[in-house]
Structures are given as structure tokens and as C-alpha cells.
Amino acid sequence: MGNRISKVYTRTGDNGTTGIGDGSRIEKDNPRIIAIGALDELNSHLGLLLCEPLPEQIRQILLSIQHELFDAGGELSLPGSNIITARHVEKLEHWLDTLNEFLQPLREFILPGGTRAAAISHIARSHCRRCETLLVTAARTESINRETLKFINRLSDLLFVIARYLNHDSKQADIFWRKDQITHTTKN
Fold first, then answer.
1. Above 60 in pLDDT, residue 187?
2. How deeply is 52 buried, as exposed, middle or buried, from its count of CB atoms within 10 A (0-12, 13-18, 19+)?
3. β-strand partners of 110
4. How far apart are the first and last CA of the chain?
5. How confident is the model over 83-134, as pLDDT tens digits?
């Protein structure tokens, strides 16, 4: 197979449009393109997390998710395609159940933090929630695979559990939110 990308720049997007998988060009601020960009950012956050020392099981899960996020972006770039399936969602649910078995049930909200790896997982989780919001917005005007929406919803849950698991594995306690720490300001 020859080179797929011979040049990084094409100059074809200089007018504010970008090409998608079906050969058409759409505005760079189209909700579909914004969602693709958000998935790319999320994948980059996972790439950063993978630079940290991680348990091998977590490393393999994250690598698998990176490939699936790339597939989801490809799916969005080709309107009408359905790459993400119920099987992908079920795999996330399996990992959620497996990792959650190691963790104590939560009785309080937790703050993002603990170890550096857990904090990065929380950043990815919060960005994943934004991806979900952008996909819902895109689905109002674009044909978006419902399984992809479910996948992103479960993924944010999994990234939360991974953050907790990473803290647990490092013997770092979760940081619980304490409502008594709320400070109130008054206007003078």
C-alpha cells in the first residue's frame, strides 16, 4: 500500500470548509465537524494518560478505546455510516463492571485528583461529557449513530471508574467533596 497522506497541507480548507468522507465539503463550524474535533481532543487526552505509568489492564483498555474513538470520528466523517455498534457499548459496560468490583461504593461526590494519572483520566472524563453534548447538538440536524451516543455516554462513566481505579491501585484515597467547605460571599 502506498502513502495515504503525502502532504499534511492541501490549502483546500483555506476558505473555511473541510472535506468529509463522502467527498463533499462542509463548513468547519458545522456541528458534525465540531464533534469530530472534540473526539480528536478526547483521544489526545487518552494519549497523554497513556504516557503515565499504568497497570497493563488499563493500558490495554485505553488503547482499545483510542482505536474506537478514531473509528467514531471516521463514522462522523462519513454521513450515514455506522461503525460503532452495541458490541462496543457492551465492551465498555463489561470493563466498567470489572473495574468497579475493586472499588468501594461511593457515598459522597469526589473531586478530580489523587494521582497524576487519575487526574488526567478525570480531564478525559470531563472532556468526554463535552463530546456527548456536542454529539447531541449535532444529532439535531445531522444523522448521528445512536450507538455512538451510547458509547460516549458509557465512556465518560468508564473514565470516572478508571480514575478511581488508578487511585486505588496507587493506594491513593479519593478526594471527597465536603459541602461544609463551601464559602459564601456577600455583597457589600
1. no
2. middle
3. 176
4. 71
5. 999 999 999 999 999 999 999 998 889 999 999 999 999 999 999 999 999 9
Instruction: Determine which helix (DSSP H) or strand (DSSP E) holds 95, and give its type and residue range.
Output: helix 86-100
Query: What mean pLDDT is predicted for residues 67-96?
Result: 97
Distances (CA, A) of 66 to 8, 69, 70: 22, 5, 6
For the chain, domain boundaries? 27-102+111-174
The residues facing 156 across adjacent strands are none
What is the rounded distance in angstroms from the CA atom of residue 28 to the CA atom of residue 13? 8
DSSP string, 95-148: HHHHHHTTSPPPSS-EES-SSHHHHHHHHHHHHHHHHHHHHHHHHTTS---HHH
| CATH T-level fold of 27-102+111-174 | Hypothetical Protein Ta1238; Chain: A; (1.20.1200)
Q: Is residue 32 a contact partner of residue 76, using CB atoms and an 8 Å limit?
A: yes
In the chain, what's the furthest Cα-to-Cα distance? 71
